[in-house]
Amino acid sequence: MEKKKFKLFDAVLMSVVVVLVVESAAPAAAIGPSQFFWWGALLLLFFLPYGLISAELGTTYDDEGGIYDWVKRAFGRKWGGRAAWLYWINFPIWMASLAVLFNEVLAQIFQIKIATPVGIIIELVFIWLVTLISCYPIADSKWILNLAAVAKVVIMLSVGALGIYHAATQGLANDFSGTAMLPKFDATSLGYISVILFNFLGFEVVATMASDMENPKKQIPQAIIWGGVLIAVFYLFAAFGMGAAIPSSQLSTSGGLMDSILLLVGHHNWFVVLIGILFMYTLAANLISWSAGVNYVALYAAKNNDLPRVFQKTSAKNGMLVGATFLNGIIATILVVAAPFIPNPNIFWAFFSLNVVALLGSYMLMFPSFLKLRKIDPDRNRPFKIHGNAVVIRLMTYVPLVLLGLTLILTAFPLNGSHAELSSKLPILIGTIVTIIIGEICIRHAEKQVDQK
Known about the structure:
The chain has 453 residues and is an all-alpha fold. Helix 6 (116-134) runs antiparallel to helix 14 and helix 7 (142-170) crosses helix 11. 72% of the residues lie in helices and 0% in strands.
């Protein structure tokens, strides 16, 4: 029987399902009405070249290592190990941030006050439930992803629709006039732009479907473009709903979505509880769905002796990854236990932005790898190849690279020296430095393990 071909609709749907994360809606909305400008600008200047470059690399070098393999081929094993480390370490930090958010949403929808010790216990249960599920084949079940997709769409459409109704009946909490949508270059607004970049990442998964497509040269760029536009629409629709209810200066990066639902509905009822439960489910489902991807990159790097051997440990019963997966749980546990001692008023944002910095850091290595591989491996068969002269190719490489670099600086470095910015960004900067140092130690340890053979 002939294998059923992967259609354009399937590729677009999967890109939306994998990349769309509901918890990113509130931090993006916190930028204010000017986020509409940033979405449009970054869609053209970052997402389009990023998507096309990912498509070329993913279809040309289709090894299991993904971004690790691309960087290693271009710049050698150490840099490949660094890319794999940053790509992997973002996951347990993300898990910690979502555990904190899960706790906050639980308190919001059931209108309870959770004491710190009880909150930590709830966060640990969340972390280890996700970790244990990720160790079993159920983590690969399509129903988890499909149900999460339905939940995400329901949440986004509900917030947006309620926002339109609120605007029509009671007016807007923010100014959505033309001038208000122009970009603001203050430290707070610019610091949140990393969230928009984060919301665009992950489209390289579409490139892995090239062999199942009827015409990958045509379908891959179409899937990436349409997927990116749809994701931007979903985010902006939900962000408008939040902006209709709460002034952007008062919008919480963690509780903003549920706060908006409560204000838009007008009172606490069954619908608020339903949206909250769906939201909490998407937090766990996102992690379960992404676990295998990030852990396989670490596994591949460990098999090539660029990360410690613990990352390649698998279960004798079902072949599932247990080394990297349990390390996810251990690191996330350490973070949530240490959270009460971190001098940051918004722990969710501290963890979430640190995970964003790590992930963006791995992609900082991807763009120059694309250019280098074009130079050192020109005769390689490229099923999908970006066309253009040398100037176009360099612009497509360096413009997103510069945007990533500036975003990392704006997210992690205190720029105006104010107390608010220091308390917000200093933990992120320290966390970034610690993360990089631990990564270097892991890479060095992997080298020693090879020498000891």
